[in-house]
Every structure is written in structure tokens, then in C-alpha cells.
Amino acid sequence: MAVDIQKLFNEELPAALAKHGDAAKQIGAKYQLNVTGDGGGEWFINVSDSGPSVEKGNPGGADCTMTVASEDFQKLYEDPGKNGMALFFAGKLKVAGNQMLAMKLSKLFELK
Fold first, then answer.
1. Tens of pLDDT along 40-86?
2. Could you tell me which residue ranges the SCP2 domain spans (predicted)?
């Protein structure tokens, strides 16, 4: 089943961060996630000591910026570990900044 990207970042992830704030802060980074194409958007995800929060847009100051097409985001969300590497090496997941932090993003999707 396809994930509703808007709902995920505008409702589900903020709710999960509110519920699991301490676990989220252990990730310890600020992410900029840009999803291109249908149903995509831009979100700034702060899971550092000053977070946790998710806001729409691109305010700057991210430690790690990831850009992916909406159809590829579906694969990334389903299995971040396996599909994340495959998308990265296929050039479909672009990562700027601290690339090691990209590996930690899967922890964000585990918070429910």
C-alpha cells in the first residue's frame, strides 16, 4: 500500500515525535527531506537536542539533505536499509551533507 507522503510528514511523523521525543532526539541531527513529483514536498525534520519537530519548507541549517522522487520514496519508506542503499547507488536518492546521518533516517520511520 502506498504511503501518503503529505499525511506522513504533516500528521503521522509529528505525532510520533511528540510521543517519542526522547528517542527521536537520540538520532541527533537536522534533516532536510525533499520529495519531488506527485504528492511530494519539502520538510525540515529536527531530531537534535533543540527538537523534535517537523516543519514544511526548507529553512536551511540541515546536517543532512536528502532528495528523492515520490515513487522512490515509497520504496525507501518500505525498507530504508535495503532500498535506501539501492536508491543511493542508482543515483535516485541524493544525499548532501553528512552522509552517515542518512543511514539513521530509518530510525525516524520506526517511531510510531
1. 999 999 999 999 999 999 999 999 999 999 999 999 998 888 898 99
2. 19-110
Using CA atoms in the order 39, 20, 66, 29, what is the torsion angle rounded to 10 degrees? Answer: 150
**What does the alpha-carbon distance between residue 49 and residue 2 come to, in Å, rounded to a whole number?**
32
Q: Does pTM top 0.90 for this prediction?
A: yes
Domains and CATH numbers, the chain: 5-110 (3.30.1050.10)
Q: Supply φ then ψ for residue 92, to 5 degrees.
A: -95, -15
DSSP 10: I
User: What does the alpha-carbon distance between residue 69 and residue 49 come to, in Å, rounded to a whole number?
Assistant: 29
> Smallest Cα–Cα separation from 48: which of 67, 66, 31, 34?
31
